[in-house]
């Protein structure tokens, strides 16, 4: 199904977050936006004859800020002193006539102005409706619309960079040549299916297969790979803190987030559950998880905690393996360490504040090859070095990822579908008399690609995407 038919009503919403502040913005979009805003706006200040200077639609130029007052034309009551900007179609966010009113950000005053606008015929906007209109009106594609939400939700520099690149059309520009290649092969195959006598025998199946592999399968695989490595740019890098009991895992979490997030005692086995806390460090968003200490003979409750720890290890991007500087490395430590994924672990030697005579830890030869940081969670020593090691590892794994082309989960699912369909088409092309099957698979791939960009997408999918937006965006 093609993008839905346009709803032509004029919509309005408070575009800034609820609360008290300097400025609150009310945004309108639709054919009546300028007319309605004008009917309740009077220019003021220099250049006007009086406080309620007359204002006609034509007198408001595009892209200029006008100083004045919002007032109720019925009773004449003034609601606020505002700045107003008009952006007429098609040079606006939605490609419709758009008006923005910058008022004072108090919930009462903004709601009063919105109510006044509604009484004049404006419909309150649904969540994401301005961006949805920008998409329906063809100003942006669906990948760009989704990146707008990513930008709003971005919690780190890396996530901002990625969203900005994608708003500029990064992902779509990568997909355009893939679609062209698919359509070209599909055109050849469909012609051969429709006119078998004329073309059927002359078709160069191995040439088509090569083209599909180089121009479709390989770049699609590249995008799928960048989802895996770039996933944390969106949701945050998952860092799991593991180690034996009492080594200071919870103390480390508290120290990193500078808050008493987890309970710390000298009783081994204090932490039974996994405790999460977020942190922004050196431009990266980190989701830290403190876990139950891993040991050989846990009680029933600890056993459940340890099961959960293993799940966290499985889904972690980086694992901090904490050991106690006051203990030598034991068999149990080595066993835990060996269980951890090789390329994602950092050894953290905690309690390095202990006096020299109490220090028993010696770096095990097996651990030489891995990053190792000495810290004291009690005194906050070594945290900067630890964050350097963490973000260094994150940067290294992101270095192969082009932030312009990092798909989200929805897009990645459709890329998987494309990959499957095109691979099936390639197999069909390698068999005799299977051109029709190949064309069906390639059509499926084109549908999947068009669902990514929104060229053909169901209203349900759009509802799901835009419902997660805030009102006013
Ligand atoms: N000297 C010193 N003591 C520490 C340090 N970090 C933690 N401790 C102490 O070590 C003990 C255990 O700390 P926790 O943070 O609860 O250790 P844990 O690894 O979370 O322990 P479990 O949850 O029981 O597995 C507490 O008495 C802490 O005060 C440190 O850097 N130096
Ligand atoms: Mg603990």
Shape: flat
The rounded Rg comes to 30 Å
User: Helix-strand pattern, N to C?
Assistant: EEHEEEEHEHHHHHEHEEHEHEEHHHH
Bound molecules: guanosine-5'-triphosphate, magnesium ion
Task: Describe the sheet with the most strands.
Answer: 7 strands, mixed
Q: What is the number of helical segments per DSSP (H or I, 4+ residues)?
A: 14
CATH architecture of the largest domain: 3-Layer(aba) Sandwich
Specify the CATH class of the largest domain: Alpha Beta
Give the amount of beta strand, in percent.
15-25%
- The neighbouring-strand order within the major sheet is 3-4-5-6-2-1-7
Describe this structure in words.
The protein is an alpha/beta fold. The protein has three domains: 130 residues, Gyrase A, domain 2 (2-Layer Sandwich), CATH 3.30.1360.120; 128 residues, Up-down Bundle (Four Helix Bundle (Hemerythrin (Met), subunit A)), CATH 1.20.120; 163 residues, Rossmann fold (3-Layer(aba) Sandwich). The protein has 14 helices and 13 strands. Strand 11, helix 10 and strand 12 form a beta-alpha-beta unit. The longest helix has 31 residues. The two termini are 25 Å apart. The model has no long low-confidence stretch (mean pLDDT 88). The structure holds guanosine-5'-triphosphate (GTP) and magnesium ion. Guanosine-5'-triphosphate (GTP) binds next to helix 8.
List the helices and strands and how they pair.
Layout: E1 11-14, E2 21-29, H1 33-39, E3 41-43, E4 65-71, E5 78-87, E6 98-105, H2 107-119, E7 123-124, H3 129-136, H4 142-153, H5 157-167, H6 170-194, H7 205-235, E8 237-243, H8 249-257, E9 275-281, E10 284-290, H9 300-315, E11 318-324, H10 331-339, E12 345-350, E13 372-374, H11 383-398, H12 409-430, H13 435-453, H14 459-466
Parallel strand pairs: 1-7, 8-10, 8-11, 11-12, 12-13
Antiparallel strand pairs: 1-2, 2-6, 3-4, 4-5, 5-6, 9-10
Helix pairs in contact: 4-5, 6-7, 6-13, 7-12, 12-13
The structure holds guanosine-5'-triphosphate and magnesium ion.
């Amino acid at each position: 199904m093609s993008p839905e038919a346009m709803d032509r009503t004029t919509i309005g919403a408070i575009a800034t977050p609820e609360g008290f502040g300097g400025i609150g913005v009310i945004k309108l979009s639709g054919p009546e936006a300028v007319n309605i805003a004008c009917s309740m706006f009077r220019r003021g200040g220099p250049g006007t004859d009086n406080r309620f200077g007359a204002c006609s639609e034509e007198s408001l130029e595009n892209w200029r800020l006008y100083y004045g007052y919002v007032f109720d034309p019925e009773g004449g009551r003034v609601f606020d002193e505002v700045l107003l900007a008009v952006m007429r179609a098609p040079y606006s966010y939605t490609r419709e006539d758009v008006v923005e009113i910058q008022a004072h950000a108090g919930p009462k005053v903004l709601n009063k102005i919105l109510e006044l606008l509604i009484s004049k015929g404006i419909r309150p906007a649904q969540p994401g409706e301005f961006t949805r209109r920008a998409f329906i009106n063809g100003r942006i594609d669906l990948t760009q619309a989704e990146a707008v939400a990513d930008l709003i939700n971005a919690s780190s520099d890396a996530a901002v960079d990625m969203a900005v690149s994608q708003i500029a059309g990064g992902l779509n520009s990568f997909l355009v040549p893939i679609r062209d290649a698919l359509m070209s092969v599909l055109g050849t195959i469909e012609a051969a299916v429709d006119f078998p006598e004329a073309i059927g025998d002359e078709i160069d199946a191995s040439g088509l297969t090569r083209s599909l592999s180089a121009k479709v399968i390989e770049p699609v695989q590249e995008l799928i790979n960048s989802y895996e490595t770039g996933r944390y740019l969106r949701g945050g890098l998952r860092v799991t803190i593991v180690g034996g009991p009492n080594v200071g895992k919870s103390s480390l979490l508290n120290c990193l987030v500078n808050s008493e997030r987890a309970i710390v005692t000298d009783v081994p086995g204090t932490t039974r559950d996994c405790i999460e806390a977020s942190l922004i460090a050196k431009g990266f968003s980190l989701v830290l998880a403190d876990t139950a200490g891993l040991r050989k003979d846990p009680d029933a409750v600890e056993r459940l905690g340890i099961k959960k720890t293993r799940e966290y290890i499985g889904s972690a991007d980086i694992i901090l393996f904490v050991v106690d500087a006051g203990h030598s490395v034991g068999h149990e430590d080595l066993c835990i360490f060996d269980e951890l994924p090789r390329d994602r672990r950092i050894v953290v030697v905690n309690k390095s504040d202990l006096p020299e005579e109490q220090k028993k830890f010696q770096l095990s030869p097996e651990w030489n090859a891995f990053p190792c940081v000495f810290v004291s969670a009690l005194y906050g020593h070594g945290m900067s070095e630890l964050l350097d090691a963490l973000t260094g590892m994150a940067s290294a794994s992101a270095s192969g990822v082009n932030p312009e082309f990092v798909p989200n989960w929805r897009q990645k699912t459709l890329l998987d579908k494309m990959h499957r369909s095109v691979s099936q088409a390639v197999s069909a092309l390698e068999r005799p008399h299977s051109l029709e099957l190949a064309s069906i698979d390639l059509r499926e791939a084109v549908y999947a690609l068009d669902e990514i960009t929104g060229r053909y997408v169901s209203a349900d999918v759009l509802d799901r995407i835009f419902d997660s937006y805030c009102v006013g965006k």
